[in-house]
Design brief:
By secondary structure, this protein is of the alpha/beta class. Helix content is about 35%, strand content about 25%. The protein is built from twelve helices and 15 strands. The strands form three sheets. Strands 1, 2, 3, 4, 5, 6, 13, 14 and 15 form a nine-stranded mixed beta sheet that branches. α3 links the parallel β3 and β4. α1 crosses α12, α3 packs across α12 and α8 packs antiparallel against α9. The longest helix has 22 residues. The model has no long low-confidence stretch (mean pLDDT about 100). The structure holds glyoxylic acid (GLV) and manganese (II) ion (2 copies). One manganese (II) ion binds next to loops.
Length: about 400
């Protein structure tokens, strides 16, 4: 595939949801922008005479061949973004899936098994807080009643957001028949660090990771008249928690990030009443991850006692370690001429699906290593190489 050909389809999606101010993306699930992305996908699929199937969770699959009698080889990824995220995280896998089908057809390939290109809903968990929500619902990894009640930052529940978008929240939930149709899943994704030096690599594992909400409460009071000794300031305990998370992660060779915070009432001249912040923590092993989160919980609890503030730590979304199917991984790496094999600290729908079906991932090189930010980037040459590698992989698995 020529880089120009990759770029032609890539550019047709590029303006959707891009924010003028920083060039990042706001592609939040169950919004008009999300709907526009889905329409783009459906049109591209119909142009290719693929059959569109939608489950009750908003996940889409465009099928080449029918999965009724034989389960398929499914690729794809997601179209939602983190707030002000990059263009590649998610859409690269979807665009590459469509182009890989074009390539296979041009090669005259007649797959024995059907091939599907999937778009999973709310992979980033940036609106309703739970990462990989679409694939978790499909597989039954999250209870639909719990999902329906998840609320966004404005208090809009998933159920309300779906209703407003014309979808039926009562249809949310596990779908064993549609899961059966995914015989093998291969997600292509931009690599999200600088670990991949070849154009294309194959995933070995995903670090266990999760999100925890930290709630701090205190005594709201006047900034000018409250003596320093009399304060119960939740912002102080919060600040300590951010430093404690950073320290624990560095000491235990893990990653910890506090990237989101909400302060109430958020006034310059008032000690806050409460602070809520979200901790994202990841590590190579579950025991390290558990150790980091437990240590943060213990040390911040002690600090909150000194500060006379309240502190609670609540798990919102947890993903165990994923070791991708070794035989599948090695078969793909061999087919790609000995592509490098590497783990990642980023979460993916492939990680959720790997507990149910043989699953693999391909990575495309990221020259700067930046991701979840507007400057996330891969070259058209590498992306075109990714499409070729995905086509080779689908041919290997479906023929
Ligand atoms: C998803 O991209 C995540 O790793 O948070
Ligand atoms: Mn992604
Ligand atoms: Mn992401």
């Amino acid at each position: 595939m020529s880089p120009e050909r990759f770029a032609a389809l890539w550019r047709s999606l590029l303006p959707v949801g891009r924010v003028g101010r920083d060039g990042g993306y706001l592609r939040s699930p169950w919004t008009p922008t999300d709907e526009y992305c889905r329409e783009w996908f459906v049109e591209e699929a119909l142009d290719r005479e693929l059959e569109i199937d939608t489950d009750g969770n908003g996940n889409l699959v465009a099928w080449w061949g029918s999965p009724q009698n034989e389960s398929g080889v499914v690729t794809g990824s997601h179209l939602d973004s983190v707030p002000h995220g990059g263009a590649y995280d998610g859409p690269l896998g979807v665009v590459s899936g469509l182009l890989a089908i074009d390539l296979l057809r041009e090669r005259g390939v007649r797959p024995r098994r059907p091939i599907g290109v999937a778009v999973f809903t709310e992979e980033e968990g940036s609106r309703f807080g739970v990462a990989c929500l679409g694939s978790r619902l499909l597989t039954g990894a999250i209870d639909p009643a719990t999902a329906r009640d998840l609320a966004d930052r404005n208090g809009v529940t998933l159920a309300d957001a779906m209703s407003r978008a014309g979808a039926d929240p009562d249809a949310l939930g596990p779908d064993p028949e549609r899961l059966r149709r995914i015989g093998t899943f291969v997600e292509l994704h931009i690599e999200q660090g600088r670990a991949l030096t070849a154009p294309v690599g194959v995933a070995s594992a995903i670090w266990p990771h999760g999100r925890w909400r930290m709630d701090f409460t205190g005594q709201p009071n006047h900034a000018g008249t409250t003596a320093m000794a009399d304060r119960h300031d939740p912002m102080l305990t919060f600040a300590y928690a951010v430093l404690a998370a950073d320290k624990e992660a560095r000491e235990q060779d893990a990653h910890a990030t506090v990237g989101r915070v909400a302060v109430s009432p958020n006034a310059t001249n008032a000690i806050p009443a409460s602070v809520s912040a979200w901790l994202d923590a990841r590590a190579a092993s579950s025991s390290t991850l558990d150790g980091v989160v437990a240590a943060i919980g213990t040390t911040v609890t002690e600090r909150s006692k000194q500060d006379g503030t309240g502190f609670t730590l609540t798990a919102e979304s947890e993903s165990p370690v994923v070791e991708f199917n070794t035989a599948l991984r090695d078969r793909i790496a061999a087919r790609l001429g000995g592509a490098p094999v590497l783990p990642t600290g980023a979460g993916h729908d492939a990680g959720v699906l790997s507990a149910y079906v043989p699953t693999a991932m391909l990575f495309v090189r990221n020259p700067t290593g930046v991701s979840h930010a507007p400057s996330e980037y891969a070259t058209d040459v590498d992306c075109a190489a990714g499409v070729e590698a995905l086509a080779d992989t689908l041919e290997e698995l479906a023929c």
